[in-house]
Design goal:
Shape: rod-shaped
CATH architecture of the largest domain: 3-Layer(aba) Sandwich
CATH topology of the largest domain: D-Maltodextrin-Binding Protein, domain 2
Number of helices: 12
Number of strands: 13
């Protein structure tokens, strides 16, 4: 392999030319003058040209030394670009957080947590993918995102999870629906045999509703309609198409305004946990760990 000069020797050469003093160059580099002299003498031998003119009044560059110093300056500048570029890449990697979240979490819970995170680190860039819980788990398992937030009752093997919030599904109908005027609660058996306006398969809301109904001993019932978002389910229920089980977070404002009616239920557990998920063996670090702490503090405060 062809010999190449070391960076320290090139930097010494440039400093000698700039300050016309070997001693000054040595001090700036933090080495002794004899060590600096020995390093430059070795550089001269390796290159085969005399670089320094040494006199009692100091050291100056020869004509060849000035040429080599000019080339060395360009090499050092390029190295500075390389080092600063690598630092920028590290900063960029450290200042980016990729998150995937199910629709309910993304719309009603996560924005406040992300706002706190950004206030603490204004330079942080957050990428958020909003999809159903099943796809969130896939993205986390593929390590395409740093963290995931889901509503589903279970997560696949290979993932770890932790509860960060609690939610309740509520049975809602439009004011004109017959259930809006009933005096007694809808029992588990009646609810279990009623086709509902539902989210698509893979949705955490759908999975939680099916798990709750299965807990009554009833078998699955074909949905009245399957829709791709809680907003679409809500809008469909508003038209009077049928009842739905939706997150209390999604329908609270509509119920308060009288646009939807919260129908009491009996004999069915509609509570659920909202959870964050991450790959087993890879606990969250950096901004992801900061977001976890914010979410857990919010849970404790609630």
């Amino acid at each position: 392999m062809t010999w190449q000069p070391d960076v320290e020797s090139l930097r010494l050469l440039v400093l000698v030319g700039r300050h016309r003093s070997l001693g000054a160059a040595a001090r700036l580099e933090g080495v002794s003058q004899p060590a600096a002299s020995k390093r430059l003498a070795r550089l001269e031998r390796r290159l085969g040209v005399r670089l320094l003119e040494r006199t009692r009044r100091g050291s100056s560059l020869t004509a060849a030394g000035q040429l080599v110093s000019g080339w060395a300056t360009r090499v050092l500048d390029d190295l500075d670009v390389l080092v600063e570029g690598a630092r920028a890449l590290r900063r960029e990697a450290a200042a980016h957080l990729a998150v995937a979240a199910s629709l309910t979490v993304a719309e009603h819970v996560l924005p406040g947590w992300l706002a706190q995170l950004r206030r603490a680190d204004p330079e942080l860039r957050v990428g958020l993918e909003v999809t159903n819980s099943s796809r969130v788990c896939e993205l986390v398992g593929e390590r395409a995102v740093d963290l995931g937030f889901v509503e589903s009752p279970q997560v696949p093997s290979g993932l770890r999870s932790r509860t960060v919030a609690r939610d309740r599904l509520v049975l809602v109908v439009a004011p004109g629906h017959p259930w809006a005027r009933r005096r007694r609660a809808v029992g588990a058996a009646e609810l279990a045999r009623t086709p509902l306006v539902s989210r698509e398969a893979g949705s955490g809301t759908r999975a939680a509703a099916e798990r709750a109904i299965a807990g009554t001993g009833a078998g699955p019932v074909e949905p009245l309609l399957e829709l791709g978002s809680s907003a679409a389910v809500r809008s469909t229920v508003l038209t009077g198409a049928g009842p739905a089980l939706l997150s209390e977070l999604v329908v609270a404002a509509d119920v308060a305004a009288g646009l939807l009616v919260d129908v009491p239920t009996d004999g069915i557990d509609l509570t659920r946990r909202l959870r964050l998920v991450w790959p087993a063996g890879s606990p969250p670090v950096g901004p992801a760990a900061d977001l976890v702490r914010i979410a857990l503090r919010a849970t404790a405060a609630g």
